[in-house]
Every structure is written in structure tokens, then in C-alpha cells.
Write a structure and sequence with these properties.
about 325 residues; alpha+beta; Cathepsin B, Chain A; 2 domains; seven-stranded antiparallel sheet; two-stranded antiparallel ribbon; 10 helices
Length: about 325
């Protein structure tokens, strides 16, 4: 098979899924920033499930399900796309080659752990990392990984391993690509839909497993961990909360900063000055999440973060929960 060089522009981004959306849309002629893609796709979310555990540790998530941002972005902008998953690596790689031969760059889910171009310190078992394959040189594939400064290459056997990694979620060779981007996409209308859903999800869901209430629900359980779980397990639980916040798909503070950038871009583009101080407010909330991560990390390592007090750490989480619920309830009332 001859080399394939699709003229794809790589831009480094803060988050893999939104970075892939922005880069793919640019290829198809729709200029959309990463924060705008994030806001339209309602990327900011929170959930906490104390009764569902992975490796004995309850699940806290600072984001929606992997792939949801892309699906919501596509639906709200009217973009047609294909999504495929596969039972066999042979069929997955064959269809990848066929799609590349059509001149279409391909987004796909991979496991971070099996991407050899990433530094070893960055590799861990996370099966929802989005990358773009945009061509071939010999047998090697050309990779645009949004977290990397420059494009790179990957050998076919390594790509297969990353596409078919076992675990949660099971990647199943999943890939996706836009097939039609309509002219005159109304980004403002799409962004309003994104804001409306995020505000409702974070500000009004009554069940404490989801949205802003779930943040306070996490804080409540965090206060109980030392007595109920003991010192060692409590620190394992706390460490996982921080890891989900700062490592798994950006999450916590990073998503708040991106949402603030989205609100500021929307305010400037569509002349909604009321959103400018709200963008600053969301940045401050992100700073509090980062303060929690720093102090919790010290506590996990035995360095007396917040004097090792789970109550003091839970106070910050509680504060973030109440502030976010109030923030999004007020955002629902802004005339967009």
C-alpha cells in the first residue's frame, strides 16, 4: 500500500476528546476552539458512586462518559459521522486503512498504557484516550495525539494493542470520523444547548449521585472514611479521588478552567457581558479544586496536607459543591 499523507493540522490541546474534535473540525473546514467544543458538548459533569467499586475503591468522576462530548457536539451542530467498533483487529485495521485511503483522518479510542511514544511516567491503564490517525508511512501510522506538542508515528502492532486493550471501558477497536459538515453551522445555537444541559445537570439533578449534589455527597463520605475504612484504605480512596481529578481525562480543576474559557469566548463572540464575571468565578472554583488536589496529595503521602484532616479536605469539596450548584442555577437564568 502506498504512503498516505492527509493534510491534517495538528494542534496541542488540554484534553484529548475536545482536542480531537477541534482538530477534526478544522480539517473539515469548521473552525472551532477546544473550549467551544467542550461547552457545546456539555463536557463538564460530576458523579460519585460509593457502592460501585473498581479494585475495591469507589468511583468518583469529574466528566461525562468518554465519547459523549463528541456525540453531543455532532448532534447539536448537525454534523454527520460514523462510529465503528470491531471484534477482530484484522477488520479494525483493514477499515482504518480503507478510510485513510478515502482521504479521511480517523479519531479513535486507545489505551494510554500501550502508546509507546508517550513517556513512561505518563502511561497508566486508561482505555479512553482519543487520538487521530491521519496517514501512513510504510507500515507505520501517522498520529496526532492532542496531548503531544508534535505529531508522531506508531507501529501497527502497537496501535492494535492500544485499540484492543482489555479493561474498563473495553476499547473494541473503536474509531469515528465525520463524513459531512454542513455549511453555515450555527455555533451559537449549539452552544446554548450545551450550556442549558450542563446548567441543568450540575445545578438541578435531585439525585445525589450526579451533578453538583454528588460533589457534596462525596464530601459527606470523605468525612466518614477514616473511621469506617481505617488510615490505609482512606488514603487509597483519597488518592483515587485526586487521580480521577488530575490525571484521568483532565477532570476536576482543568475542566473548570476550560469551561471558564468557553464562557469567556461565548461572551466575547456573542456580546453577553454578564458571562465575563461568571467566567472569572468558574476559574476561581477551578483554583479551589486544585487547592484540594494539592492538600489531598500531601495527606496521601503522609506530609500532613491540611494537617492530615479528612474533615478539612472535605470542607473544600463541600465548598466547591455548593458554589457549583449556585453557579449553574444562576447560569440557567442568563439571557444567552
Amino acid at each position: 500500500m502506498p504512503d498516505i499523507h492527509i493534510p491534517f493540522e495538528h494542534n496541542q490541546s488540554a484534553h484529548c476528546e475536545t482536542g480531537v474534535i477541534s482538530n477534526l473540525m478544522g480539517f473539515h473546514g469548521l473552525k472551532v476552539s477546544e473550549p467551544m467544543a467542550f461547552g457545546i458538548g456539555s463536557g463538564l459533569f460530576f458523579s460519585f458512586f460509593p457502592f460501585i467499586k473498581i479494585n475495591g475503591i469507589p468511583i468518583a468522576s469529574y466528566r461525562n462518559m468518554p465519547g459523549d462530548i463528541f456525540k453531543k457536539f455532532s448532534k447539536r451542530t448537525g454534523i454527520s459521522f460514523e462510529r465503528h467498533s470491531y471484534r477482530s483487529p484484522e477488520s479494525a485495521m483493514r477499515e482504518l486503512d480503507e478510510t485513510l485511503a478515502r482521504g479521511l483522518p480517523v479519531g479513535m479510542l486507545t489505551s494510554v498504557f500501550y502508546l509507546p511514544y508517550l513517556p513512561k511516567a505518563f502511561r497508566f491503564h486508561f482505555n479512553a484516550h482519543n487520538i487521530v490517525i491521519y496517514g501512513k508511512e510504510g507500515n507505520d501510522y501517522l498520529v496526532s495525539d492532542p496531548v503531544m506538542e508534535q505529531p508522531t508515528i506508531i507501529a501497527p502492532n502497537a496501535l492494535v494493542r492500544a485499540r484492543f486493550a482489555k479493561g474498563m471501558p473495553n476499547t473494541n477497536g473503536r474509531m469515528y470520523f465525520p463524513t459531512k459538515v454542513p455549511a453555515g453551522v450555527d455555533l451559537r445555537k449549539a452552544a446554548i444547548k450545551g450550556i442549558t444541559q450542563t446548567a441543568k445537570d450540575m445545578g438541578t439533578i435531585p439525585v445525589p449521585l450526579f451533578g453538583g449534589k454528588a460533589i457534596n455527597y462525596l464530601a459527606k463520605h470523605m468525612r466518614q472514611w477514616p473511621e469506617k475504612q481505617g488510615d490505609r484504605k482512606s488514603k487509597l480512596y483519597l488518592g483515587q479521588v485526586v487521580r480521577m481529578q488530575e490525571e484521568i481525562g483532565t477532570g476536576g480543576g482543568g475542566f473548570r478552567f476550560m469551561y471558564a474559557a468557553f464562557l469567556r469566548e461565548y461572551a466575547d463572540t456573542y456580546n453577553v457581558p454578564e458571562l465575563i464575571p461568571m467566567a472569572a468565578e468558574m476559574t476561581a472554583i477551578g483554583d479551589r479544586w486544585r487547592s484540594f488536589a494539592y492538600e489531598a496529595g500531601r495527606a496521601v503521602k503522609g506530609r500532613d496536607g491540611m494537617n492530615g484532616s479528612f474533615d478539612a479536605l472535605a470542607d473544600i469539596v463541600d465548598e466547591c459543591g455548593y458554589k457549583e450548584r449556585d453557579f449553574f442555577q444562576r447560569l440557567m437564568k442568563v439571557k444567552l
